[in-house]
Design a protein that fits this description.
By secondary structure, this protein is mainly beta. The chain contains no helices and eleven strands. Strands 2, 4, 5, 6, 9, 10 and 11 form a seven-stranded mixed beta sheet that branches. Strands 1-3-8-7 form a four-stranded antiparallel beta sheet, with no helix packed on it.
Length: about 120
Amino acid sequence: HVQLVESGGASLQSGGSLRLSCEASGRSVNDNCMGWFRRAPGKAREAVAVIERDGSIEYAASVKGRFTISKDNAKNTLYLQMNNPTPEDTAMYYCATGIRVRASLLHEANFDYWGQGTQVTVS
């Protein structure tokens, strides 16, 4: 049984920083494609950042240079460090895991399990 539990969401002001965590069980973060997605009110879900088994990383253009994805294999946990967020980053953030089947790491088809999400609000 695969379970992903996100935490760390909060309300913060622009220019601050926040770290989201995603604790995985039933699947190793080291052996699978792991990613962060988000859904803003009234918008479709979009990829934020993905890290592959071999350490390859892709970021959405909107967060590149501000957000950093990482993982702790010993804790089986995925992280998203958010620096200098803006109100446009306000969304529910979801953790996901899967096996890469598409050329682009950011493609949703690479993911088959999703967490329940953690809310980030930037003002």
